[in-house]
Protein 1
Amino acid sequence: MLRSGLIQSRRSFATAVQDSLLPKKYGGRYTVTLIPGDGIGKEITDSVKQIFAKERLPIDWEEINVTGKEGSKEGVREAVESLKRNKVGLKGIWKTDATQSGHGSLNVAFRKELDIYASLTLIKNIPGVKTRLDGIDLVLIRENTEGEYSGLEHESVPGVVESLKIITQFKSERIAKFAFDFAKKNNRSEVTAVHKANIMKLADGLFRSTVKTIGAEQYPEINVKDIIVDNASMQAVSNPQQFDVLVTPNLYGAILSNIGTALVGGPGLVPGANYGREFAVFEPGSRHVGLDIQGKGVANPTAMILSSALLLRHLGLDESADKISKAVYKVIQEGKTTTQDIGGKASTQEFTQAIIDELAASA
Ligand SMILES: *[C@@H]1O[C@H](CO)[C@@H](O)[C@H](O)[C@H]1NC(C)=O
Ligand SMILES: *[C@@H]1O[C@H](CO)[C@@H](O)[C@H](O)[C@H]1NC(C)=O
Ligand SMILES: *[C@@H]1O[C@H](CO)[C@@H](O)[C@H](O)[C@H]1NC(C)=O
């Protein structure tokens, strides 16, 4: 099977965003919304800023300093307005406090507000990073706007809480098409729908049957399968190489992307992207804020840098995307200047500098 790993064209990623809606250049430059978020967000987006500056990329950042801690709706509005202007963003993660009352996660509100419905996580071994299993190369595509994240919860009588999971045919079709289009454009041959239709016969049944129908009717060249989420979790840790493209409702995607992230070496390594009809926001594939290592200068910025490479592809700057990804891979493979999470001793800044040096050397 032909598979492109790092090197994918813009067309292969800009699946959901219509061409007419791609960001416009002004004076040959793009303005991109930058939302560092909480935790290690500032440190790892700093790495990206340095690399882009050294490479003299035609990108101007519009930095939005909103933190999830304050949980301000105004903050989200500011970020949303910026995204609506610029159409493309790079984002860290906002902290969500489990005990926060009054509103839900800012991350969820943000994605819903912009209807960025498809979330993509690229789970692939990086040469030089030791893992239990090799040969993993799977793409996880997660519906991002409904399912268990509807935000519809209430206590109907004291001690009884109802939490509504919403699955619609429209959104199931939309995410299924995204997954098949992605598979088609990236020479992948199989899409597997993850569900729990044996228990949630109506909701997950609708998701499963929709994916299967769209596949059979509109993408006959792509093999379509389905798997129960429990089994998918077991298979993911025992034989992940069997998976090609997985398409999931919201919560199962959150869980499986974390399993996948652990398989290939942790949250510091896995890039991701979120696409809507009009907007694209690039952020690490597994959404960890990293409060425990915040401010220590030890975070691994790889996930953020590789996400920024996906952003460059989205803007049609494929050459720069390839160059930066290759430099990151080379520094990790050499193993001399890597961060603690993957067994090295380097700081975030030393690792970033090693990438900048590698870019200069290969120029
Ligand atoms: C956010 O912070 C950065 C650097 O700390 C600063 O350059 C930028 O102007 C700030 N943005 C806003 C909107 O205040
Ligand atoms: C997919 O395969 C075709 C034909 O082999 C090739 O021309 C194309 O570049 C490949 N696309 C990607 C994204 O790998
Ligand atoms: C679990 O998945 C494996 C491989 O994907 C499949 O062969 C097996 O039949 C599945 N088991 C159940 C109980 O669905």
Note: The mean pLDDT is 89.
Protein 2
Amino acid sequence: MNECLTCGLWKQLWCWLEELSSRLQDSNALKLILAVCVALLVLFNVYSGFAMANRCESRSEEEGAGDAGVRIPWNVPFNNQSPINIERNCLELSYFNSPLIWSNYNDVPLGIRLENNGHTLLLRAVFPGRTPSIDGGDLLGRFDFREISFRWSWSNSSGSEHTVDHRHSPLEMQCLHTDAFQDGCISSQGLLVISYLFQFSEDNPFFDVLVQHLVAVQQAGQAVEVPPFPLGYLMPAFYTNFYSYHGSLTEPPCHRGAEWWVHPASLAISERQLNEFRQLRNRRGARIERNARPVQPLQDRTVYLNRFRTGF
Ligand SMILES: *[C@@H]1O[C@H](CO)[C@@H](O)[C@H](O)[C@H]1NC(C)=O
């Protein structure tokens, strides 16, 4: 046996087999069977090694295709994806000294257009003067309002994309803003999404200006101009105590980075009002059952609770 320790792999195996078979009363047939087994094992290992290498190659080809602008599958986990679960026990406090400035949200737009795109409800508006915008706080510049989209589901216990302590809200309203100095181009930088979660309550009169028109966009592809109302009806301004984290858009192309602010106080919606959303249909003519992207891993990101520090 000592002699065997110094020889090459095959010799070593052979020595080991010899010793084993001599112990098993020197049966040559047994020796042969064991040798065949060992050879098969070795072949299997080599084969699976090759198979593994091939799989890695095809995966990197897919990633290459993604970089070339080919559609990225919805569920592929990239870094810093949205939505996330917000764990209220794991927030990091962050203080800011300059107040948030919400401008022009109480102006009445020239027109408001609702559209059912088969996946969600979109609200866009045209303004007579300046586009509503948010500034101040830790923001590096002014962010202009672009559009609002909504997430809901047939079930009371799901609907929102973001969860707080793993609980969904029945409705989430996401208000997309872009860096005011990028000429309206939505690039990988300069996106701010302000999100509001809802809870069941009485009718929310501010939302009736929207909800009463949903009957006109029940089919996918339908759009309607509605009597204009200030966006501030839907988007109450807040000045402190909001969550923030760095994420992405939740629809393709999901890799576009976005800063997310989530207003921690829930807005009110009644079941009657939510049911109007639940009537909207997709491109196949079926009612949209749910339209939230699943919660994505937080990985090494931090979720902040942002507080305005008064007195500075
Ligand atoms: C959903 O919530 C509403 C409002 O609380 C309630 O009236 C309704 O019965 C709930 N539906 C189900 C299926 O639980």
Note: The two ends are 81 Å apart (CA to CA).
Protein 3
Amino acid sequence: MKMNPWTLSVLLLLAGPLGADPDWHVEYPDSFCVVEGSTATIPCSFTHPKVHRRTGVVLPVNRVVWCRNHEYCLDPKANVFNVYDSKNVRADSRFQYPGDLVRNCTLKIIKTVKQDAETYRFRFRTNGEGYTGPIGVRVNVTDGEVVKVRSSVTDNVVKEGGQVTLTCTSACSFHQLDVHWYRNGHALPETGPALHLSNLTNDDAGNYTCSLDSSGQNTSAPWSLLVVEDEGEPLI
Ligand SMILES: *[C@@H]1O[C@H](CO)[C@@H](O)[C@H](O)[C@H]1NC(C)=O
Ligand SMILES: *[C@@H]1O[C@H](CO)[C@@H](O)[C@H](O)[C@H]1NC(C)=O
Ligand SMILES: *[C@@H]1O[C@H](CO)[C@@H](O)[C@H](O)[C@H]1NC(C)=O
Ligand SMILES: *[C@@H]1O[C@H](CO)[C@@H](O)[C@H](O)[C@H]1NC(C)=O
Ligand SMILES: CC(=O)N[C@H]1CO[C@H](CO)[C@@H](O)[C@@H]1O
């Protein structure tokens, strides 16, 4: 195939080596809502050029920091703004970094308290260069009181063999939260915002509650399920 020089140079530009090297970037949500007392797992990812633009030196990340209410996470005076610093990890901290030094900058806040409702930013540094995610994550901490069980059926009576889906809801949207389910106070193996119960038997009957932390604090009011035979008689 014959190409004119102009087409060829455009193709070279599109496929050029610079196009493959990612830019400095941090990706996290603008805001994140969490119920007081539960664990917030704030998703975060980052990219950076793999080599220095001028020197061509390879740039491994050697330090990661999460700070609170500071534009650059760079305060000469202070770690006071830092909630996590890979150079100075506090083992007992409620702020944990399950992320890595490659691309995952996830931050965990254990047992959130009202005072955690602030703006958090992520900064990482390579040899010589550093970058802070500019916008930051505004964390909202809401009362646990609002946790509720909702069901896919209108009343609490379901026929044997039938099914029901229970959803744990609160003021926060739930996709990032740990949800724990209980029947008559006993923990169920299922976790996640929705509990699907199918092929119902009388063993499934009882009071269902959900909670946002494994210690079972901040539990919803019970939702009681009654399983009846097809004739409509309770199986008790
Ligand atoms: C957090 O609170 C702010 C201000 O109160 C609100 O604008 C924002 O939508 C909230 N975010 C979430 C995820 O609830
Ligand atoms: C980042 O790390 C967290 C915690 O280990 C994990 O849950 C999450 O799936 C990771 N995200 C990606 C995109 O790999
Ligand atoms: C439903 O339960 C009945 C009785 O326990 C059992 O025989 C049947 O295999 C179950 N069906 C499914 C799809 O699990
Ligand atoms: C379920 O809750 C109701 C009222 O809250 C109570 O009367 C009943 O005994 C409970 N059932 C079980 C199995 O705990
Ligand atoms: C409404 C409610 O029970 N809130 C509690 C949730 O859990 C935290 C910490 O475990 C308590 O401080 C709250 O009072």
Note: Confidence is low (pLDDT under 50) at residues 1-19.
